[in-house]
Amino acid sequence: MKKFIIIQLFVLAFLNISCEKSLSTSPDDVQKPNLKLFIESEPEGAKIYLDNKNTGQLTPDTIEWLDSRNYKLTLKLDHFKDTNVVVTVNQSEVTKVRLDYTRNPNMRGSLYCDSNPRDAEVFIGDSSTGKFTPVAIHNLFPGLYTIKFKKEGYWIDSTTSYVESAKTRYATLSLKDSLVWVNFTSQRINLPTDYLTHVTIESGWIKWISTLSEGVIRFDDKTVINYNETNSPLPGNNVNMIGIDASGKKWICTSSGLAVLDGQNWTIFTSSNSQLPSNLVECVAFDVDGAAWIGTANAGVAKLEGTSWTLYNTSNSGLASNGIRSITIDPTGVKWIGTSNAGVSKFDNSVWKTFNKDNTKPIQEPPPAPPKPGIPNNNIECVALDVSGITWVAVGEEGDVPGGSATYKGFGDWTIFALLPSSSVNTIVIDPGNNKWFANSIGGISKYTGPGLTPTDGSWIHYNTSNSGIGNDRVFSIAIDANDHKWIATYGGGLVKYKGN
């Protein structure tokens, strides 16, 4: 009985399943159109939107199961403007669309490049743009760029920045000094010679350089311009000094006369066309009224005020010698005139006074050494005045008598500064911190920090070819620019920039 029941249930179940299958019905599937749209772009990888809906696909790709109609196609690519086009999907074939971003100028962007310090050459990747900071570089294709900055005396550095369509992005860097000492020689920057006699600074940064035999050099850290007898009215190529007056005129002292350069205009003064007493012009200085005081090697001093000349020599004034090496004018208008063989003449516009090795007060320095004269000898190369009112003189050799330096504190009180490495000093300059920098005929340059009362009351640092980057130990001149960098004119080693302090 139980077997029968089980068999019966199985049969019923089978019949039941069979009945359900035979009774089930479904409508025929509706045939969807399978029109296709193939989309590609240059560059690839753009997101594909149809009718503002993200398809989830990237170019190049094919969108299927489309109707035959117009679609709004939008491509979105990072850093590019969105691109919208209307596409008509064709019934008979695959519709193809290609968008080339590289051909659309509206896709381009810009980079603004700047550096500290400025005037650095700008490279995109490894290719120079030929431009210098600060500069905007336009018409760049969007994407990630490596921007390099290169400037003499600083490490090459780089940064990365994305360029975006129709936008300006910024790429800026602070460059690090690569060298404390930077040498500018005839091999590096096309100087006409490495034998330099003087350097002075215009507008805080433009260097005007005197040479022994190649005229005048103008150097703006990038371009060298050489003025000589061949390419300009310069009367001689042996240039001793260049002075720059308050109006920016360059007064060029040559061994063949005086040249004044005012922009592009030259005025030449010689003993034959003016009252200049000698063509051997050594130096020039300017007083508060704008008059030029011109020192000659063998005929004293000539003052030129406008078109009026006044001559000072040993015959008509208290000037100690007609051989003039330097002229310095202090804030009160007093002239300090260094002579080649008679010490220093001081002129307050009414009274002359001369200081030499015989009449300066001897002082015992340092004890228990015997007293020394206040000025080593009478060959005065330069006079400088510090912020404390102390007068400093650079003294060259006079025959077999060594020179050096000495200071004057008023009331006949002179002190020899005997701790210099050279027996002959060509120039003294004073920086904004009241430090004294000595250009030594041998031994490089020396820095003195202290009050200037005695040589031992401060600290000394000496720089030469063995312990620094200076190009030659024979130094004729030092000038200090607006950044407190020292520019050193050497005799045989070109121009040297010292960034240290």
Question: What keywords describe this structure?
Answer:
single chain; 501 residues; mainly beta; four-stranded antiparallel β-sheet; 2 helices; 5% helix; disordered N terminus
Brief account:
This protein has 501 residues and is mainly beta. It contains 2 helices and 42 strands.
Helix content: under 10%
State the distance separating the first and last CA atoms: 120 Å
Molecular shape = elongated
Low-confidence regions? 1-28
Strand content: over 45%
Q: Mean of residue pLDDT? A: 89
Could you describe the 3D structure shown?
5% of the residues lie in helices and 46% in strands. It has 501 residues and is mainly beta. The strands form 11 sheets. A 4-stranded antiparallel β-sheet has the order 3-2-5-6, with no helix packed on it. A 4-stranded antiparallel β-sheet has the order 10-9-12-13, with no helix packed on it. It has a 4-stranded antiparallel β-sheet with strand order 15-42-41-40. A hairpin with a 5-residue loop joins β24 and β25 (292-296).
List the helices and strands and how they pair.
Layout: H1 2-23, E1 35-42, E2 47-50, E3 53-58, E4 61-66, E5 70-76, E6 83-88, E7 95-100, E8 109-116, E9 121-124, E10 127-132, E11 135-140, E12 143-150, E13 157-163, E14 168-174, E15 181-184, H2 186-189, E16 196-202, E17 206-211, E18 216-219, E19 224-227, E20 239-244, E21 250-254, E22 257-262, E23 265-269, E24 281-286, E25 292-296, E26 301-305, E27 308-312, E28 324-329, E29 335-339, E30 344-347, E31 352-355, E32 380-385, E33 391-395, E34 404-408, E35 414-417, E36 425-430, E37 436-440, E38 445-449, E39 459-463, E40 475-480, E41 486-490, E42 495-498
Parallel strand pairs: 1-7, 8-14
Antiparallel strand pairs: 1-4, 2-3, 2-5, 5-6, 8-11, 9-10, 9-12, 12-13, 15-42, 16-17, 17-18, 18-19, 20-21, 21-22, 22-23, 24-25, 25-26, 26-27, 28-29, 29-30, 30-31, 32-33, 33-34, 34-35, 36-37, 37-38, 38-39, 40-41, 41-42
